[in-house]
Amino acid sequence: MNEIVSFRRMEDGTREDYELLDRVEREYARGLPDQVLAALRKLDHSLGGYPVSRLVHSLQAATRAMRDGADDDLVIAALVHDIGDELAPYNHQEIAAAMLRPYVRPEVTWIVEHHGLFQNYYYVHHLGGDRNARDKFIDHPWYQSCKDFCANWDQCSFDPDYPTEPLTSFEPLVRRVFTRPAHDPRYLAGQPLRMPR
Fold first, then answer.
1. Domains and CATH numbers, the chain
2. Cβ 124 vs Cβ 157: under 8 Å
3. Three-point CA angle 131, 137, 140, nearest 5°
4. pLDDT, position 171
5. Rg of the chain over CA atoms, in angstroms?
């Protein structure tokens, strides 16, 4: 039987209770790569209307990023940028950014968090929206990076004929990134890291 804490209200918890919860959480977090891969697989059966599934779209975006020589942080961002679609269709980018934040540099988190607004450039004018709404960030240091992410990897990745790498090709990257020590300054403020070829 699993150990459980002694409290019913957090304010009544003991040091031993919180040491137990810390240990349980660390053990649970070791399984994060498998949870990310499972969530990506679920995208194969979500949101219709496109010529490819959300999983194939994500794999295409990641394949394009990898083939362009992007570093690990950007490739993983391309792979998981739409992972929140199932639970948060109107703010999916915030879920993906929150998921990545402890493991990648802030530029990449910012790109993922804002890619929905930047992606609007390609279609929102057809629905009466302002395609240039992204320009409110035009002076932001990562504006161009987000614009390039959308132009080069996101908006063009709905092609059923594009030679896309399978999820198994990205599994080692998922395992590497999501087993990094969370909030480690080497990753959060470090230089871009390259995916081995």
1. 18-184 (1.10.3210.10)
2. no
3. 150
4. 98
5. 19
Cβ–Cβ under 8 Å, residues 170 and 59: yes
Give the bridge partners for 194, in sequence order.
71
Torsional sign, CA 57, 187, 180, 102: negative
Q: What is the DSSP string of the chain?
A: -----S-SSGGG--HHHHHHHHHHHHHHHTTHHHHHHHHHHHGGGS--SSSS-HHHHHHHHHHHHHHTT-BHHHHHHHHHTTTTTTT-TTTHHHHHHHHHTTTS-HHHHHHHHHHHHHHGGGTGGGGT--TTGGGGGTTSTTHHHHHHHIIIIITT---TTS-PPPHHHHHHHHHHHTTSPTT-HHHHSS---BPP-
Cβ-contact 132, 124 below 8 angstroms:
no
Question: What's the rounded Cα separation, in Å, for the pair 11 and 105?
Answer: 35
What pTM was computed for the model? Answer: 0.91
pLDDT of 187: 78
Specify the pLDDT at position 153: 98
**For 191, phi and psi rounded to 5 degrees?**
-75, 155
Query: Could you tell me the two tokens for 78?
Result: 């391309």
pLDDT above 50: residue 88: yes
Strand partners, 71: 194
Q: Residue 29 pairs with which residues in a beta bridge?
A: none
Cα–Cα distance for residue pair 54/47, rounded to 1 Å? 7
